[in-house]
Amino acid sequence: MKLEIIGFNIESCIAAQDAGANRIELCDNFSEGGTTPSYAFIKAAREKLSIELYVMIRPRGGDFLYSKDDFEIMKADIEICKQLGCDGIVTGILNSDGTVDKKRTAQLIGYAYPLGVTFHRAFDRVKDPFQSLEDIIEIGCERILTSGLQPKAMDGVEMIKQLIAQANERIIIMPGSGVNAQNIISIAESTGAAEFHSSASMFINTQMKYENELLKEKMKHITVNKSEVKKMVELLKQKVNC
User: Fold this and answer.
1) Residue 147, pLDDT score
2) CA–CA distance from 221 to each of 31, 58, 224 (Å)?
3) pLDDT for position 211
């Protein structure tokens, strides 16, 4: 069993690795649901991590219907990932009718080779998940990150179970969204999943001694809860050894 943790900053990446995570999904912009991180962030993560590093290829927040210019940016970002020695990318493109854009997603997979490719939670926006599963298998992704078309993976366990059964080991179905130490084993047992995705996040208050009281924003930032990652890793190990 494998545990993937989102890294929204370098401290999160290091904490997740130290806690026993198997893979980092590198992202920027937590509030947007994750976008492509900067060159410097990717470079630093690759230099400091020995575990698998998959980079989000998503040029903006919002929907997954991309323009020609967006697509060119995605290709350029993939090239950066290859140059920096990443292990894979996390991406996905949809058509306006809720189907998978097979043509352009397949092109991104080709550009990424030999890097691995995860089709991200754009999958949770598709019209027909079972046909989309077949489309994603056909174009060559190695896994799909999904919450079972629900806001949280716990709510989508029945759909995730059906997807895993249909996939029949042709592709990895990885539950994500709201996965934590309290529910990871329940999700595993309900779905049969072997890989899991979690932010294991918490917020750290600012260490600034001076703050402008006229500005209302809370100057806190997201990071990984190292103890939460350790708990999930240990629970998965225990399940494997049962």
Assistant:
1) 98
2) 11, 21, 10
3) 85
In angstroms, the CA 6 to CA 198 distance is 6
Say how far apart CA 161 and CA 46 lie, in whole Å: 34
Query: To the nearest whole number, what is the mean pLDDT of the chain?
Result: 96
How many whole angstroms separate alpha carbon 225 and alpha carbon 157? Answer: 24
CA distance 116 to 25: 12
Residues lower than pLDDT 50 in the chain: none
List all residues 6 or more positions away from 203 whose beta carbon is below 8 Å from its beta carbon.
Answer: 220, 221, 222, 223
User: Which of left, alpha, beta for 123 (phi over 0: left; psi -120 to 50: alpha)?
Assistant: alpha
pLDDT value at residue 242? 74
Domains of the chain listed by start with CATH number: 2-241 (3.20.20.380)
The per-residue pLDDT for 170 is: 98
